[in-house]
């Protein structure tokens, strides 16, 4: 069996001619407006804002434990905690 040429990787997926052909066929079928929308996703009624924070190693460790326990993303856990804090 002949080994397929790999042109590179995207998201851990080997890009072969088969993958290129599949993506090209999908593009030729067309995309919906939602599939073409770029930029930050909506949260609530508007485009989400990004806020960066620095965490101590201890706080970061607690965040990672909560992420693993709850099965949520870091962003979800931080949003939940901030919402509860600001509502009090």
Q: Which fold name fills CATH's third level, the topology of the largest domain?
A: Arc Repressor Mutant
Helix content: 40-55%
Main pleated-sheet profile: 2 strands, antiparallel
| CATH architecture identity of the largest domain | Orthogonal Bundle
The mean pLDDT is: 90
Label the overall shape. Answer: elongated
- Contiguous low-pLDDT stretches (5 residues minimum) are none
- Ends distance: 65 Å
Which H/E pattern describes the elements?
EEHHEEHH
Please state the structural category: mainly alpha
Portion of residues in beta strands equals 5-15%
Total count of strands: 4
Top-tier CATH class of the largest domain: Mainly Alpha
What is the domain total for the residues? 2
- Please compute the radius of gyration using only Cα atoms: 20 Å
Q: How does this model look, in words?
A:
With 88 residues, the chain is mainly alpha-helical. It has helices at 17-29, 33-36, 57-70, 74-87; strands at residues 8-10, 13-15, 42-43, 46-47. The strands form 2 sheets. A two-stranded antiparallel ribbon has the order 1-2. A two-stranded antiparallel sheet has the order 3-4.
Properties at a glance:
two-stranded antiparallel sheet, 4 strands, single chain, two-stranded antiparallel ribbon, mainly alpha, Arc Repressor Mutant, 51% helix, 88 residues
